[in-house]
């Protein structure tokens, strides 16, 4: 049966200029390169300078994705920016990116699902494209978590980094089979009862301040390995594919141990796992498009490959999407 699929026609990313290594952090808090590498797999992260706001990072990534697709801003009629670190409370970062790219048609909005934001944004854009409500969507994940991290708290500040990634999705007719290019299936979940395990202790409607990130790391770890596999299995089921059909597994990059435990549980071979957490740290909603772009640029992900993206974030929110590249 013919239907509209959301096909990835371009991918791009952008990282701030400044690199902060684990050794640099040893001078700020009581920590060690050995502890950070052993517990998380992180070796370095990029940190935004004062002029590198979330919209600036996002616009650079979006421009790279458009260039890769051979398109310009005039070809886009939907911009979704997944972020928890917007430049301002409002207007949305998506509208700022829209303006920076000279996009004057269609509509733009931010989507907030913390680290799961990019998966939620891809699934949301897919619905607009599949119904014909938009033709080409720019889906951006952009974050400056360095601005909301408590730099005195060694249990969290070593984990996060800044950056942005983007994909251009284009509505194209498919046959309705798993051979189609595009988003084949997605599955989203959330459960607000877990708020206290990962949250920011401020906001415009409560304290009137931005607040700082707080986390019960062990609890998040346990939930991440336990639940993210459910949405992945459901996505496989919904699409009629299995872990064996997968070309690449591109998970949210928070912790190497979480990623490898999830892959093992799902029977996904380690060589199919794309890992960038060592170089980027946890960049929240930006981590998946950053990893996708890295794997596209080094020639791993190619047209026709079957790619599973998945993430979990504060809330909790979690989800997965299967894409025929
Ligand atoms: C945060 C995380 C790396 C901590 O690893 P862990 O093995 O659970 O470590 P613990 O929290 O049990 O801490 C172990 C010890 O290391 C210490 N420690 C914590 N941070 C440290 C740091 N940066 N450097 C050195 N020691 C540190 C703790 O104080 C604790 O010391 P104690 O045993 O004397 O009390 C891990 O829990 C994790 O990755 N959780 C998930 C986080 C995540 O992915 N969040 C984002 C989701 S989107």
From TrEMBL:
- Boundaries of every Beta-ketoacyl-[acyl-carrier-protein] synthase III N-terminal domain copy: 109-192
Q: What is a single Pfam family found in this protein's UniProt entry?
A: ACP_syn_III
Which keywords appear in this protein's UniProt record, sorted alphabetically? Answer: Acyltransferase, Cytoplasm, Fatty acid biosynthesis, Fatty acid metabolism, Lipid biosynthesis, Lipid metabolism, Multifunctional enzyme, Transferase
Q: Which family does it belong to?
A: Belongs to the thiolase-like superfamily. FabH family.
| Major location (coarse) | cytoplasm
Which HAMAP family does this entry report, sorted A to Z? Answer: FabH
Residues of the Beta-ketoacyl-[acyl-carrier-protein] synthase III C-terminal domain? 237-325
Q: Which reaction does it catalyse?
A: malonyl-[ACP] + acetyl-CoA + H(+) = 3-oxobutanoyl-[ACP] + CO2 + CoA
What assembly does the database describe for this protein? Homodimer.
* Domains: entry comment: The last Arg residue of the ACP-binding site is essential for the weak association between ACP/AcpP and FabH.
Region called ACP-binding, residue ranges: 253-257
The active site of this protein is located at: 115, 252, 282
Q: What does this protein do?
A: Catalyzes the condensation reaction of fatty acid synthesis by the addition to an acyl acceptor of two carbons from malonyl-ACP. Catalyzes the first condensation reaction which initiates fatty acid synthesis and may therefore play a role in governing the total rate of fatty acid production. Possesses both acetoacetyl-ACP synthase and acetyl transacylase activities. Its substrate specificity determines the biosynthesis of branched-chain and/or straight-chain of fatty acids.
How would you classify this enzyme at the top EC level?
transferase
Q: Which InterPro entries would you find in this protein's record?
A: ACP_syn_III_C, ACP_syn_III_N, FabH, Thiolase-like
Originating organism: Methylobacterium organophilum
**Name the record gives this protein:** Beta-ketoacyl-[acyl-carrier-protein] synthase III
Indicate whether Lipid biosynthesis appears among the record's keywords.
Answer: yes
Pathway, per Swiss-Prot/TrEMBL?
Lipid metabolism; fatty acid biosynthesis
Where is the protein situated, by its record's location annotation?
A: Cytoplasm
EC number(s) recorded for this UniProt protein: 2.3.1.180
């Amino acid at each position: 049966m013919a239907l509209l699929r959301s096909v990835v026609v371009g991918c791009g990313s952008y990282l701030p200029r400044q690199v902060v290594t684990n050794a640099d952090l040893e001078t700020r808090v009581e920590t060690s390169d050995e502890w950070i590498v052993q517990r998380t797999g992180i070796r370095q992260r990029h940190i935004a300078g004062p002029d590198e706001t979330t919209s600036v990072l996002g616009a650079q990534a979006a421009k790279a994705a458009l260039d890769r697709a051979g398109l310009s801003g005039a070809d886009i009629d939907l911009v979704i920016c997944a972020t928890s670190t917007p430049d301002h409370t409002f207007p949305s970062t998506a509208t700022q990116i829209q303006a920076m790219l000279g996009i004057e048609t269609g509509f733009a909005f931010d989507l907030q699902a913390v680290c799961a934001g990019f998966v939620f944004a891809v699934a949301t854009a897919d619905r607009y494209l599949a119904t014909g409500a938009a033709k080409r969507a720019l889906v951006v994940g952009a974050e400056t978590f360095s601005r909301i991290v408590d730099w005195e708290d060694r249990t969290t500040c070593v984990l996060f980094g800044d950056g942005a990634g983007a994909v251009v999705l284009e509505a194209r007719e498919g046959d309705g089979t798993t051979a189609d290019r595009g988003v084949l299936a997605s599955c989203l979940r959330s459960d607000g009862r877990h708020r206290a395990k990962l949250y920011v202790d401020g906001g415009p409607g409560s304290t009137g301040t931005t607040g700082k990130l707080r986390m019960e790391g062990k609890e998040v770890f346990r939930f991440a390995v336990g639940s993210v596999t459910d949405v992945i299995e459901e996505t496989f089921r919904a699409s009629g594919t299995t872990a064996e059909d997968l070309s690449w597994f591109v998970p949210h990059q928070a912790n190497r141990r979480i990623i490898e435990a999830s892959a093992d549980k799902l029977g996904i071979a380690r060589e199919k796992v794309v890992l960038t957490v060592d170089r980027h740290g946890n960049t929240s909603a930006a981590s998946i498009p950053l990893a996708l772009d890295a794997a596209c640029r080094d020639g791993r992900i190619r047209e026709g490959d079957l790619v599973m993206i998945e993430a979990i974030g504060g809330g909790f929110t979690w989800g997965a999407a299967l894409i025929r590249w």
